[in-house]
Each structure stands twice: as C-alpha cells, then as structure tokens.
UniProtKB/TrEMBL annotation:
Belongs to the dicarboxylate/amino acid:cation symporter (DAACS) (TC 2.A.23) family. One of its GO terms (molecular function) is L-cystine transmembrane transporter activity. Keywords: Amino-acid transport, Membrane, Transmembrane, Transmembrane helix, Transport. This is L-cystine uptake protein TcyP. Pfam families: SDF (PF00375). Signal peptide: none annotated. The keyword Lyase does not apply. The lineage of its organism: Bacteria, Bacillati, Bacillota, Bacilli, Lactobacillales. It comes from Enterococcus columbae DSM 7374 = ATCC 51263. It is a multi-pass membrane protein. The chain crosses the membrane at residues 6-23, 35-52, 72-94, 106-131, 184-204, 225-251, 263-285, 371-389, 395-417. It is found in: Membrane. Its main location: membrane.
C-alpha cells in the first residue's frame, strides 16, 4: 500500500510537470511560470507534510523520484559553471581593448562584497539585541547532540586557517583539476586562469594578429554554443523550482520551526535589512532598486529554493549581462568571486548572530563598541576563509567562533531550522554578487542603462 500511494504522488507530480509544459507552449511569461512553480511546490509539499509528516516512508519514496527533477536541474546548472566562467571571461577580454580594467573590476567587486559583509555582520548582531535572543532557550535533542559532536571534529579543519593561505589557494596549480571542481576554490582558480588567457590573447593580438583572430573566432564559437546550452537548461527552471520547493516543504520540521521561531524571525529580519542595504548601494550609482529586484527575481527565486549559490551562477551571470546591463567581464568576476568571498548571508549575518548569542555565556559584554568592532572585523576577514573549506554557513560560523574563542555548540542547536534559514541566506548571497556587478560596472562607466531599464531586455530563457 505504501508503494502504491508513493506512486500516486509521483503520478500527480508528473501531471503537474506536464501542466508547466503546456504553460511554456502557450508562451506564458517565464517569471510567471517560475512563481507558479514556486507556489505549486509550496502547496504540494505542504499537503504532503500535513498528511504524512516528515519521516513517513510514503513521502521518502516519492521524494526520491521527485528529487530527480529538482536535484537533476541543480546538477545541470553546476555542470555549466566552469565552462561558462571560462568562455565568458576570455570572451570579455577578446572584446576588451584595455587589460588594465581587470584590476579595477576586481578591486571594485571586492570592495562591494567585503563592505556589505561588514554591514551584514553589524546587522546580524543588532538583530540579536532587538529580538533578545538567548541561546539558553534553544532545546537540544538527539539530532542536535549528534550535530554538536560532529562540529567538534570539523572545528579541527578550520582552526589553522589563515587569510594568506586562503589567498594562495585562489591560485591554480592544476587548471584541469579546477575545471573538474576538485577544490573549494576551483571557481576562483578558473577565473584566475581565464584572466591569464585573456591577457595573453591581448599580447598575441599585437604581435601575431592572424593567430589571435583564429583564437578569437574559436572562442566566439565556444561562447555561442555554451550560451545556447545555458538557455536550454534555464528553460527548465519552473520544473526545477517546483520539485525543489516540494522537497523543502515536505521535509521541514514544523515543531522545530515553532520552537526556534524567534531565531528564524530575527534571521529573516536581518537578511531583509541587508537587501535594503543592497538597495542603498544601487541608489548610490543611480539604479532604481525596484527595477533591479524585478529583473533579478527569477535568479533570486531559484537561489531561494535551491540553496545553491554555485547552482545559481549561470542564471546569475545571464541575468547580469542580458537583463541588468552589466558588462560581461564584470558580471563574471562579480558572480564568481561572490561564490567564495564576502557572502552576506552565510559569512556575514549568520556567524555574527551566533557569536552574539553565545558571547554572554563566556562573560563578554555584547553591547560594548569594542565587541561590535571586533566582531565586524573578524567576520569580514573570515569571509575569505569560507572559500577554502566548503560547508557554507556552518564553516563560516566555526571560523568566526573559533577566532573569538567562543564555544561552537550553538551552531548545532539550530540544525533543525538550518534549511529554512539557508534559503534566505543563499538569496542574499546571490543578490550581493549581482549588486557588486552593477555597482562596479557603473563605476567603470560600462553599465548599459538602456538595457537595465528596458522591460524587453530579459534573459534568453524568458524570450
């Protein structure tokens, strides 16, 4: 009977997928289809949660098949990350007349990423004060105890990390291994290699224009093919979002959500304030935040449901270049750096909140200016360290708590609501990288403002 009910759920899921296909055939707007998938996934997953709970074998069996669509879509996007970064950055050099712009692009992107992370850390600490969060009220069950024991082991992986070591890790030693994504900093490694290829092309262009033109033609062909693959994959977004959202709702522990409701509310409030900070950065370069959020919404929605900044990278770059008017070089640098450096949600708000919650237990006055300045400095500097270890917000928190000599158990106590908070954190991370691209492109006078304000300028999947 269990298998029969699971099969029925999968059949209903398949019928829903066919319904989304019919919407596509009728040329319903891409954003409408994405949000329809998001809403339908919430309803579908919520119904499964209400009827069967989170651990029923009926749901487990059905989700195993449903995840083929959701996880499969994320994998397709991750498949495109390295090829897209390479052809886009090299292609940008081919269209670029001045190689010295790369230094300016990198400096401006890093400034936005790190400055917003510092502000995000301060906001995270302030939200602890506003909501009067007390770690002593967090309950510890079997899952939390196991998580705390695991964290004690993981902490040994980050205790010896240093910023110079992380910077060195950005430099590739085997570019083929980085194209295979074998390191946590592989994406940055491909960016560095691509930049060297681009600079080399500019040098060859001066001395051997014929050979340079042959290379340029080859890269242009590779670029067009890669972007066509990106378009084909992005058209699957409504289906992927639908499946991912079903999984999120069907597996969420609502009892834990109620118990940690204040912490969740404080986290979302902090992340919302960070998005307002992003808006202020946009206003500083004369970009309407409403225009930005409207055009960035498909990418931000996918980041929210997938909880994967890497998986969102193709959609991130495509949105910046096709919808927001950011030049290709800046878009690729901003999106790629944003995967590993200065993530506002995972490396800014989250570790700052946890540190401020646990600090009073070791006798620290969290209301002092000295503590806040130290926290902001440690969080901002440690955001470099996240790149070398993987694990996102958990490792970012371990690095910060370890640097401040605070206990790490607090990280394990919120494990039950981690997925729910991580959705919003990922959205904020992706938004920050896109804002960094817009601000940098504007400051270098490369931002296409006509494209930015043109309602018809959308990503290829929306056309």
């Amino acid at each position: 009977m269990t298998n029969l009910i699971s099969l029925l759920i999968v059949i209903i899921f398949a019928i829903a997928l066919f319904g989304f296909y019919q919407l596509q055939k009728r040329h319903v707007k891409f954003s409408t289809r994405v949000f329809s998938g998001l809403f339908a996934g919430v309803v579908f997953g919520g119904v499964l949660q209400f009827i069967f709970g989170t651990s029923d074998k009926v749901v487990t069996n059905a989700l195993a098949w449903i995840q083929i669509v959701g996880t499969g879509y994320v994998h397709l996007l991750q498949m495109l990350v390295m090829p897209l970064v390479f052809v886009s950055i090299v292609g940008a050099f081919i269209r670029m007349k001045e190689s010295n712009k790369i230094g300016k692009i990198s400096a401006n992107v890093l400034f936005v990423l790190l400055s917003t992370t510092a502000i995000a850390a301060l906001i995270g600490a302030l939200m602890v004060f506003v909501f009067q969060l007390d770690g002593a009220t967090f309950t510890k069950g079997a899952a939390e105890s196991a998580r705390i024991a695991e964290l004690a082991q993981r902490q040994t992986q980050v205790k010896d990390l240093s910023i110079p070591q992380q910077i060195i890790s950005f430099i590739p030693t085997n570019v083929f291994a980085d194209f295979a994504g074998t390191r946590a900093t592989s994406t940055i490694g491909v960016v560095v290699f691509s930049a060297f290829v681009g600079v080399a092309y500019l040098g060859v262009k001066k001395k051997a224009p014929k050979e340079a033109q042959t290379f340029a033609n080859l890269m242009e062909s590779l670029y067009k093919i890669t972007m066509r693959i990106v378009t084909l994959v992005l058209r699957l977004t409504p289906y992927g979002v639908f499946a991912l959202m079903i999984n999120v709702l069907a597996t969420s522990d609502f009892e834990a959500i109620i118990n940690l409701g204040k912490f969740i509310l404080a986290s979302y409030s902090a992340l919302l304030l960070v998005l307002i900070v992003h808006s202020l950065y946009l206003l500083a370069v004369r970009v309407n935040p409403l225009v930005y959020f409207k055009k960035a919404l498909p990418a931000l929605s996918f980041a929210f449901t997938s909880r994967s900044s890497a998986g969102t990278l193709p959609l991130n770059i495509e949105t910046q270049t096709k919808a927001l008017g950011v030049d290709e070089a800046t878009a690729n640098f901003a999106a790629s750096f944003g995967l590993s450096i200065g993530q506002n949600g995972c490396a800014g708000v989250y570790p700052a909140m946890l540190a401020t919650i646990v600090a009073p237990t070791v006798g620290i006055n969290v209301h002092s200016i000295e503590y806040l300045l130290l926290l902001v400095a440690v969080v901002t500097i440690s955001s470099f360290g996240v790149a070398g270890v993987g694990g996102g917000a958990t490792f970012a928190s371990l690095i910060v708590l370890g640097a401040l000599n605070f206990p790490v158990a607090i990280v394990g106590l919120v494990i039950s609501v981690e997925p729910l908070i991580d959705m919003a954190r990922t959205l904020v991370n992706v938004s920050d990288s896109m804002v960094a691209g817009i601000v940098t492109s504007s400051r270098l006078n490369e931002l296409n403002r006509e494209q930015l304000t043109d309602k018809q300028a959308v990503i290829a999947a929306q056309e």
